[in-house]
Amino acid sequence: MTATPVTEAELHAYIDGLLPAERRAEVDAYLAAHPEDAQRARTWQEQNQALHAWFDPVLAEPLPARVRRPALSRRMPPVLRYAAVAAWFALGGVAGWYVHAYNSAKSADSIAFAREAMIAHVVYSPEVRHPVEVGADQEAHLVAWLSKRLGASLKVPHLQGVGYQLVGGRLLPGNQGPVAQFMFQDGNGRRLTLYVRRGARDSSETAFRFAQERGVGVFYWLDGKFGYALSGEIDKAALLRVAEAVYQQLNP
Amino acid sequence: MDGPGIDFVPHIPRLRRYARALTGERSRADDLVQDTLERALIKLHLWRPGSDLRAWLFTLMHNVFINQLRAQAGRLTADDEAAEVAVRPTQTDWLEVRDLQAALLRLPEEQREVLLLVGLEQMTYEESAGVLGIPVGTVMSRLSRARERLRGLLAGGAAPAALKVVK
After folding, report:
1. Which residues 209-228 of A have a C-beta within 8 angstroms of B?
2. What single DSSP character describes residue B51?
3. Which domain holds residue B84?
4. Looking at residue B106, which CATH number applies to its domain?
5. Looking at beta carbons, which residues of chain B come within 8 Å of A65?
6. Partner residue opposite A59 with nearest CB, options B14, B39, B150
7. Looking at domain A69-250, which CATH architecture does it have?
8. Does the CB of A24 have a partner CB in chain B at under 8 Å?
9. Is A102 on the interface with B (CB under 8 A)?
10. Do residues B147 and A12 touch, judged by C-beta distance below 8 A?
11. Residues A207, A179: contact at Cβ < 8 Å?
12. Which of A7, A136, A184, B64 is a good FRET partner for B21, with 20 to 30 A between their CA atoms?
């Protein structure tokens, strides 16, 4: 009678508890006849036990605040805030994501970008205590830092002319790498965010496009090295006025 | 509110445990967890309700970790073979290994990840393959190398013939 040879993979599965039950007896018999393999397998098992002994205490540590609620408002408990964002997505799905493309060529990538910007707006603009990582009082540092992380020289528009003051900015993980978010606020505390990413390619196309979901509007456009998206919960005409101001400031 | 009720919080302790073992440093590990959760919030629309939230979070963490490595080092070992250089084990290869954490950090990242997903997180080989975006066969070969390498490191001297060169 010839038994099916025991493979290296089966030895691992044996000690990881992933071997089919009907095969166990055969592997047991194999190990009894091969003390060197038995020793190796025993060592691997001890490694698993050592990993648990060494790292399981982390499970019992209290969660640090920054991990428990990354980027979450203090106004709502973390779970509620996640739920609020989740609900926003769910409703958005029902209401539909509609896009008025000023230019008929719709690019899935730029729609995804606009959506990312909108989500970042929804997540960060209600922040009371931590709306930004670096405040407007350190504008030079903010611009230098974000330029360095995006790998290209950024400019922040000054929007006092259209009623908005810079609050500050933060670095965010975008789909295609680091993204900068600048936040602006008007006299009534209404906030707009400008989301800026380094474009995949230089673009000469500068048409504004508009998208809207659940009351949040976003104008987005490509300009040279960068993609921009301006999001806010204000009416479309007012948002366009600000978007034009941003565009003009960045293209003197 | 009829949101899908997605709650990351119950998964955080395990994400932290894995991140700690992966990075070897408390603050770096929590940075990794924080970045992962922020990414999860932003990418929530990509999560399929009903699918395994834990596996999805570990996948995101793997991606964040790899991106950080790329950003830091400006290089990443593309495949196992490229990094495999046969060298004679020297004394310092094992004398510096004071404990399990130090030994883990001497494993190439891609081996460390597999070892921890299987040995610590107790994922199946298929789940680990899904998280890492690699075939199951690659999981098995990395697991085998990781365990043998670790055995050599912890045995102090009985180093395997071919050592992985991490840097």
Report:
1. none
2. S
3. 79-167
4. 1.10.10.10
5. none
6. B14
7. 2-Layer Sandwich (3.30)
8. no
9. no
10. yes
11. no
12. A7
Q: Is residue B157 part of a domain?
A: yes
Q: Give backbone dihedrals phi and psi of A209, rounded to 5 degrees, phi first.
A: -125, 155
Both B106 and B150 in one domain: the answer is yes
A76-126 residue pLDDT tens: 444 555 555 555 554 443 333 333 333 333 456 777 788 889 888 988 888
Tokens 């050599």 -> residue: B152
CB-CB neighbors (< 8 A) of B1 in chain A: 83-84, 87
pLDDT digits (tens, 9 = 90+) for B110-124: 999 999 999 999 999
Q: Show residues of chain A in contact with B159, CB under 8 Å.
A: none
**How many Cβ atoms sit within 10 Å of the Cβ of residue A28?**
12
Is A119–B150 a contact, with Cβ atoms under 8 angstroms apart?
no
CB A143 within 8 A of CB A107: no
Tokens of A227: 């993609």
What burial letters (b/e) apply to A91-103, b meaning 16+ CB within 10 Å? ebeeeeeebeeee
Closest CB to A67 among B16, B101, B124: B16
- The interface predicted TM-score of the complex, written ipTM, equals 0.79
Among B36, B58, B76, the domain boundary falls at B76
CA distance B62 to B32: 9
Q: What domain count does chain B have?
A: 2
Count of CA atoms in the C-beta half-sphere (13 A) of A72 = 26
Helix A8-15 × helix B136-155 angle, to 10°: 70
